[in-house]
Amino acid sequence: MAPRIEAPEFRLTKTDVVKKVEDILAPLKLSEEVQKRIREVYDEEMRIGLARNPSRKSCLQMENTYLPELPNGTEEGEYLALDLGGTNFRVILLQLEKGRVVSDEVQHYFVPEPLRVGPGSELFDFLAACIYDFLETRSKLDHKLPLGFTFSFPMTQQDLNVGILVSWTKSFNCPGVVGEDAVKMLNEAIQRRGDLEVEVVAVLNDTTGTLVQGAFLDRKCAIGLIIGTGSNACYIERVDRVEKWEGTHGDIKEVVVDIEWGAFGDNGVLDFMKTEYDQMLDKNSLLVGSFTFEKLFSGKYLGELTRLVLVKLAEEGLMFGGKIPSQLLRPGSFPTRFVSLVEQFSMGIEGDIPTDQSEESAKHLDQDAVLKLARPVSSESCFHELGIEHGSDDLKILQQVCFAVTERAAILLAICLSATLMRVDREECTIAVDGSLYKYHPRLHHLLEHYIIKMTPGKKFSLLLAEDGSGKGAGLIAAIANRLRTRKHS
Ligand code: BGC
């Protein structure tokens, strides 16, 4: 049964409160006109982002990834993959046979906060130390392993193995890395140690890895999408449309373009739709004034957005008997997993989402595993967990808030996905998706389908869960990089 799309029924014991709550939530509703404007702005930013000498800079990076082809089923051998983007760094050893990952050994290393915001060289020394630990444990220190590095941050790529950091996002902000090549910094850290044989052959974004993994699962795949802690997408573009491509592109016809849509709106083009909650959220964030689009809905922010709306409702005397619970005043106290949980309850689905809803755990859980971890709950669980006293009307209002932020998230994503779908030169296109919010939110998948169908009538598409693109995809891309090198030198 497809989950319902409409808002849960909204009846309260105090009927006058309904209207007041609706008024507070109204700015989160995107009218048809606003949706149309966002779409136009997005199309324009995409166009400028690909132009050679645009009159102004686009907020969409539209980065050429230099990945000209997808796996073709000939990829073989042993590869190392690194995955950095969240609080857990992963090292993965992959065995490929005929383009298929036949085994993968994974090890997680927690990246403590001081490393995430401390000097860049220390972060890269830590990554190199993790590689050493991983290989030493497996007695593989003397193996010459090609390495694919998933670095899930905005990069300027000048080649498949050159990735210059444009800005940090999410929970990272290490001085000394912006403007530097992440591959060079990693290689330097490896050389400083002098005891590793690995060679970084490719650097990639997690969306690219997801697209590659998706293409392995389904040949029609031409878009890679992440809806997790952060959000972003990449797609296969015709080379002749990448006007800004420097130099010749030989007989390459298509290339993967990393949109970096998290930064959509950083130049002010989305100011017209930002609410007071979005502004507050940005003001309190680690990287103020950047990653506008991502902050509107992604996993790192959706719970926080909900918290800010709840505080506003409490301030207006519409919840919690007019008292503002102190627990709610603490930034970050309402995690995004609560939104998924409330939504699940609103839909009448029994069971819980895992308490650990981090990006990293999502990479290792399929939908069945998620259900197995389920335990009975209700929307109340989040208030209980926070120790907040509440009445039954408070729960109904909470459902409306979660519905409103979810609905806006789905519409925003659908607008950009629809526009991207229309650019992709395919009659039928599969969108490979990964990320904790997509995996755990009970309605997001269905809402996305619903709105994309509405926004792209007649276009054939499907959304495919492509798990662990940043691990398996990195291995596959390292293999493609090897193939391209051999071809160049033969
Ligand atoms: C980064 C992207 C990444 C996305 C999903 C964003 O914050 O800028 O490069 O793809 O998060 O991890």
Automatic annotation (TrEMBL):
User: What class does this enzyme belong to in the EC scheme?
Assistant: transferase
Give residue ranges for domain Hexokinase N-terminal: 21-215
Protein family membership: Belongs to the hexokinase family.
Q: Which GO terms describe its biological process?
A: glucose metabolic process; glycolytic process; intracellular glucose homeostasis
Which InterPro entries does UniProt cross-reference here? Answer: ATPase_NBD (IPR043129), Hexokinase (IPR001312), Hexokinase_BS (IPR019807), Hexokinase_C (IPR022673), Hexokinase_N (IPR022672)
Q: Which domain of life does this protein belong to?
A: Eukaryota
PANTHER family with a match to the protein in the record: HEXOKINASE, PHOSPHOTRANSFERASE
Q: Which reaction does it catalyse?
A: a D-hexose + ATP = a D-hexose 6-phosphate + ADP + H(+); D-glucose + ATP = D-glucose 6-phosphate + ADP + H(+)
**UniProt pathway annotation:** Carbohydrate metabolism; hexose metabolism; Carbohydrate degradation; glycolysis; D-glyceraldehyde 3-phosphate and glycerone phosphate from D-glucose: step 1/4
Give every Hexokinase C-terminal domain span: 223-480
Q: Which GO terms describe its cellular component?
A: cytosol; mitochondrion
Keyword list, A-Z: ATP-binding, Glycolysis, Kinase, Nucleotide-binding, Transferase
Q: What is this protein called?
A: Phosphotransferase
UniProt GO molecular function:
ATP binding; D-glucose binding; fructokinase activity; glucokinase activity
For this protein, the Enzyme Commission number is 2.7.1.-
One Pfam match: Hexokinase_1
